[in-house]
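Q: Can someone sanity-check these two? First one:
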Amino acid sequence: GNGWEDREPPSSPSAPPSPSCPLMVLTNSDPELPSSLAAPLHQLYLRLLVDQRFKGRFSRAFARCYSTLAKSVRCGGSRRESTLLTLSVQFLNRQALVLPLVQSDGLLSELMGAVDALLEEGLSARPALAPRPGAAVHHTIAQRRYIPFVTDLRYVLSIPDVPELVARSPKLLEDWAGTLEKLQGLDPQRREREAHVDWEHGDWAHAFNLHISLSSLFDPLARAPLADPDLAAPAVLLCARAAAQASRRAELHPAPGQDPAGGAESLCS
């Protein structure tokens, strides 16, 4: 009613928010709050987000505390439906807010890092969780805890100019190629040479679901390279190198249950 909803937010201040400012402290400590406090606090945030000045300040605190919020979801400390990450849709789809967060607050690095950290944790535990071929998916992946991170990445990458910023950043491309490298052989399957239809495990579905979720990012990521051939070569080379490195590593260090002689098929290759 006061017209705030139709106004563009003011330019983000050049100085980052102080770690000791109340909004940063509240955002950073949100995973530690009991639900009796967190739920009404989140409702208060929703009401205040109609004020564009508050939305701009909250978005900066959110971006700078993202790794803390993501870690809580990744480690099971926060349920997806009750975490502060559910508020991201309120501002990560606004170009005037997102571009400063990407350029000044490292938002893309935080989002990509959240996906990478989840994969790193999940894959590091695979040998201990593989009592049989194929049963090597960590609970963070099986429970699809990556969904809020991938969703936020999709919001941000759908903003005009953001895909070009990714394509022009060697570090972001290198980091993302490293994440894609981790996906190679996520569900290695031994090639069976005898009858095996009596029993089949269903763990392949976790790798399949992760692959489908991350595939939603490919179109926005490819938008800038497809529009500008000068941006295409670095992205293609990095991804090709990541795939080659992963393939070579799989040959030298087969995953549990993989048959080096017979080969293995990957649902996330």
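And here is the second, same format, sequence then tokens:
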Amino acid sequence: NVVDCERTTITSAARRVLVSNCYDVTHNIFTPSPPLLVGDNRNCQFAPYNTYYDGLREDLLATGLAAVLVSPDNIVLSDPIYGPALQCASNKWKQPVELAKLSDLLQAQSIAPRSTSPIPGSSPGADDKAFSKTGGTDDAVKIPTLVPASEFQVLFVPYVSETTKERRRRQEANADDQTVLTIGSEDNSTSGVPKGGIGSKYCHNLEDILQLSPFRLPKEYETRASNKMERMKSLQRLIHTDLTPEQQLKLEEDLNSGFRDWLVTSGNLRQVLDLVHLERKEGRVR
């Protein structure tokens, strides 16, 4: 349940999502049931589940939100790098229902005349007009705003286990082998380019979402995210090949300064401070 929240972005996977009295909240969710909105909700947006973290697959199996995929011979389908294949129900993130308006619609249907067809030769009455406006269809229920693919953002979880590190090392080794086969006949001018499997943490996290998460992104969201990742990798290659170490350091300083200014002006500094407080609290507990 999401109750009395304001100006918040939430990522969650649950059997049912209920939103009550929330303002300016973005929900990145997986749920096999349509999200329910009750009370006074304003400026609520919905988007598909947008992250992956170590232990997500185990959490989904434990809660019954996913199941291990088996062959007709009852053999568990598995990948040596990614582990057992999982399957889950269809994500109903884009089908939120406002209960108040649904109740009004059902009430309008219950008081409407049994036959909505006017008597031949007569004009439709007030009840007929009212019922035709409500429609008796799903179109009468106003759907809250959906986050467009162009504004979809990936949530990066800043924790990497030893298992993930080993998996990424194997992925990078495979990518290095493919890169050697591709550029083996070229000169050493490409030696400054980052290796094929080495990218930013953002790119690694996005690859995990696209490859490991059983929650497949809708086509348009996956395409946008993949394009953004390719642009990021291209930019990294250009930085390594076209800039000197001194220029790279200056660029990093300018980016960090611009990022700090953006945190302050956008109001997102609060999120960073919350993470710092949580980390300190966990440190004291340990």
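A (reply): Looked at the second one. The helical segments are 56-63, 99-111, 126-134, 162-183, 201-211, 219-242, 245-266, 269-285. The first strand starts at residue 2 and ends at 3.
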